[in-house]
């Protein structure tokens, strides 16, 4: 028996590797030859890369009483979505874009709530304004899920707004976009036809099977697998055909140290696939070809980030900026307590 280390820190939500087999069908889309494909570099035509990510946070759980004995759950939450705008050729400095906090009062009751405005004692601290948002159900974690959903919707909208259109022609020589969006996590509905690549940092699902996964351990930095195609939600039992088609491929960012598992340093990428899946659109092909060079350039180092190399350098910078935008969690909690005390502290319950 050989014991290998999962490189990600144990206090993260998930490990870097779990590999649950994909229940549906996966098809070759680029070639029938299952072998490593070298990177072809980043063409001059591509001038702009945007890395998009979001960060949610629950700030307080609430219990609502309508005065007639009916109880419901709610919560104060916040989220930030932003982007890092950079040049893939290093000709200009990277810039943060759109990093601002949005606050939500998520509730499950039938009666609509008003906007909650938390005024500070110090006028320089600013007003915290929580917009009401109703969610279905009465689960304790419903408010957290509502904040997460709102964040993902904003991520999707920002990615679609920033990315160039992506022609779906098979032979268009101008199909490579000048602006590419790298989105943390899988691509999402509504981004089809745009140059959006989802990068999945954790390998939780095995799309390859035992006969093909060995290629991932043999990849050298910058190399990738051929492009594959699958249907999201396909269970492989004939009961459902899946919701939409996606392309996916794997890229190695760095060699794994001998003491880590051999898939350390491998990242999975995905893009939307058109319904006509007899070919890989030229734009997707070109993006796959440059993905190795781009991601190796953006990959982080273990001495800088415990989730290296998959947690890209722009992603880590964006996470820090988003944390600052939401403010100190401890200070926000104090203001929530002061707000509730001011609203209800003088009331006497019989």
UniProtKB/TrEMBL annotation:
This is NurA domain-containing protein. Residues 49-312 form the NurA domain. It comes from Deinococcus budaensis. It comes from the Bacteria. It holds the Pfam family NurA.
